[in-house]
Amino acid sequence: MEKVLIIRYGEISLKGLNRPYFENTLLKNVKRAIKHLGDINVYKAYGRLYIDLEDYDVDEIIEAVTNVFGIVSVSVAYIFEADMDRVCEVALEQAKECIEEDDVKTFKVESKRGNKRFPIKSPEISRVVGGYILENAGELEVDVHNPDVIINVEIRDKAYVYSRKIPGFGGMPYRTGGKAMLLLSGGIDSPVAGWLVAKRGVEIEAIHYHSYPFTSDRAKEKVIDLARILSRYCGRIRLHSVNLLNIQKAINEKCPLAEMTILSRRFMMAIAQRTALDRKCKALVTGESIGQVASQTLESLNVTNSAVDIPVFRPLIAMDKLDIIKISQKIDSYETSILPFEDCCTVFLPDRPVTKPRLEKIIDSEKLLDVEELIKDAIDNMEVIIVYPED
Ligand code: ATP
Ligand code: MG
Fold first, then answer.
1. Taking the domains of the chain in order of start, what are their residue ranges?
2. Looking at 26-70, which runs of residues are DSSP E strands?
3. C-alpha count within 13 angstroms, C-beta hemisphere, residue 368
4. Which region, left, alpha or beta, applies to residue 385 given φ > 0 means left and ψ of -120 to 50 means alpha?
């Protein structure tokens, strides 16, 4: 029997005149996500996308497709000539599968009749199919209000029968929302922040700061690994790798040590903004969250924020660490994030960092440095790595 994957998208269907643009981008993104699995047919019909499953590995396709942003859920549907006896048989098969695999006890049938020439109306289809399942599926009972599973029957050019819905992440199709530069550290927070913004359709480039040779090659590898995990959802990612060591040395030499973190963070923001503008990114993204560490008090956030003019998105700003960790586990970055490699911020770390910096005082300290020259030098020596998803 022919099988297709039905792909549902939510919010995009509200997009009015722009809808074709969002749908077509989603279609392109789905095709890209399964390209490595073969020459698979994907098409748009009835306000959804469909994939011909043929003999391909269904689980592999589902895994790749549910990582595509904009998709609310998918279902495997059986397609065959519309005929009530066949519909009853296939629906019964589906019900039995659900009993075996998902321990389902109650069900309900929902029907749609797109082809009005089909002689039986939808409520009648549901009644007949429901009755047939009830009679033949053993202990399964009907529950119209809160069933464990809904068996769906759709009559269009052919009959479509499906049951289970596998959830996607929702959001908007990637690359429909402009581009932003993610400050990607080796920690737990920034990959999650980038993922959340990407889920809203914003294309992500990343920038990372290290203090090589004070930080190791393994620390750098770790950030590439994190970018690779993001690329599962986004496709290839451009990662800018910047050595901050000369800047940290200059700060160490000329400025109060307690200001090390806040001053380096202003440099990070300034370098990120310059790279962002150069790459046509319209915003920065960070994993900052109020109160997490000394550099994330409101005073510190204000001081780092005023190093740049473009918007800085902080999707985690009001989230608790435990909730951030849950997302990082869901998107599979957690295990990589907790690997113990040093971040550039741990070099020259002050014992007692300022927690309530005053902007005027920080700007006075910056006057002791050749800020422009240091930034220019860091950018000139920046390394660019294109990170591809693993197949
Ligand atoms: P994370 O878990 O993301 O490392 P954190 O809790 O360690 O965050 P901070 O070190 O204060 O917090 O960093 C706050 C944000 O600043 C990070 O989420 C990230 O966006 C950015 N950032 C910090 N260090 C770096 C770095 N070495 N390279 C790029 N961005 C960085
Ligand atoms: Mg960090």
1. 2-167, 179-387
2. 42-45, 48-52
3. 15
4. beta
Q: Using the 8-state DSSP alphabet, how is residue 83 labeled? A: -
Q: Which of 185, 248, 273 to mutate to test the pocket of ligand 1 (most atoms within 8 A of CB)?
A: 185
Confidence check: pLDDT of 40 > 80: yes
Which amino acid residue places its CA nearest to atom 20 of ligand 1? 286
Q: Is 39 exposed, middle or buried (0-12, 13-18, 19+ CB in 10 A)?
A: exposed
Residue keyed to tokens 């993922």: 195
Question: What is each CA distance from 387 to 104, 280, 383, in whole angstroms?
Answer: 43, 19, 13
Question: Residue 152 in 3-state DSSP?
Answer: strand
Nearest ligand 1 atom to alpha carbon 242 = 28
CA of 165 to the centre of ligand 2 (A): 37
Report the amino acid identity of residue 81: E
Q: What is the residue with the minimal CA distance to atom 17 of ligand 1?
A: 287
pLDDT of 391 over the 70 cut = no
64 CA distance to ligand 2 middle (Å)? 30
- The 10s digit of each residue's pLDDT in 137-149 is 888 999 999 999 9
Which pairing describes strands 312-313 and 42-45: parallel, antiparallel, or unpaired? Answer: unpaired
At residue 295, the pLDDT reads 72
Q: Identify the CATH number of the domain defined by range 179-387.
A: 3.40.50.620
Measure the CA angle with vertex 11, ends 7 and 16; round to 5°. 110
Residue 209, classified by CB atoms within 10 Å of its CB into exposed (0-12), middle (13-18) or buried (19+), is buried
| 205 Cα–ligand 2 center, Å | 18
Query: Which amino acids bring their CB within 6 angstroms of ligand 1?
Result: 183-185, 187-190, 208-209, 268, 286-288, 292-293, 295-296, 343-345
Spatial contact of 9 and 48, defined as CB atoms under 8 Å apart: yes
Mean pLDDT, residues 218-222:
92
Q: How many angstroms separate the CA atoms of 303 and 37, rounded? A: 48
Mutate to test the pocket of ligand 1, among 188, 189, 271 (most ligand atoms within 8 A of CB): 189
State the fold for domain 2-167: VC0802-like (3.30.2130)
Q: Whose CA is nearest to atom 11 of ligand 1?
A: 295
- Which of 181, 182, 183, 383 is the pocket-test mutation for ligand 1 (most atoms within 8 Å of CB)? 183
Nearest residue to 50 (alpha-carbon basis) of 7, 112, 3: 7
